[in-house]
Amino acid sequence: MRLPRAAARLLASVVIAPLLSPRLPLPVRRTLLDATGHVVPGPRGTRRSRGALGGVPTERVAARGSGGPHQVLYLHGGGYQTGSPRSHRGLGRAAGAPVHVPHYRRAPESPYPAAVDDAAAAYHALRAAGHTSQHIALAGDSAGGGIVLALLLRLRDNGEELPGSVGLISPWLDLELRSPTLRANARTDAMLDPAWLGEAAADYRGDAEGPELRPLEADLAGLPPVHVVAGTDEILLGDADALVERLRAAGGPVTYRRAERMWHAYPVLASMLREADDAVAALGAALRRDCTPG
Question: Domain range holding 63?
């Protein structure tokens, strides 16, 4: 059942946003956010199974008949502290391929580089299973988008073969929280409160430094096609804008769906909101096109 935009915005602000706030203890937030996976219906015609990739617990979501040839490795959002495959089940159908969602380690128990290490282990496991890099797409939302970009930089700098395509939904990339949109859009973002992000960033970063934690300051040359989705009402809009500008300056192939009057990570409401369905369908088509050229 699709909701009008106003109703979907209300759902995001009343049901999901409070679960990302430090007003509740972290274990409670994690449990309740996972429960939202049952509120937001999963894509019809998909099957879920649990397993592991590179020792990382992973949920696999696949539509009937979507055996590939490409595979999608999806890193869920949740501010590096919360979220899991259970809370991000609505994005599995449009890619037309199996979607693997690792349950990577989270802060504060496991700060950086644990999440990136787990993402790398899952990627290497797909490669070891016989999937060529060209047939693997990396995707993620919010903090998961930050992990995706960190992994890309690691793979490139290590001289490894890069995935065929990248999809980023409302990526959180600047842990220093310097973007003016954090304040300018504080009242229009139905999903995120900027007051929470400082604590989450500190828990994830710890005492570490390096380009994987500062991707907007890194060399972005030589990356595969990147497809970015963000909403003009979200507090992390500045991160998406800056990334697209840096990618274009580096000469990389990039597309940008900058959705008017939409909030942070709105595509997670796929199957409930027309704008979310449209964004996910377009992103899935782009990943398929890149990973199966010709």
Answer: 5-291
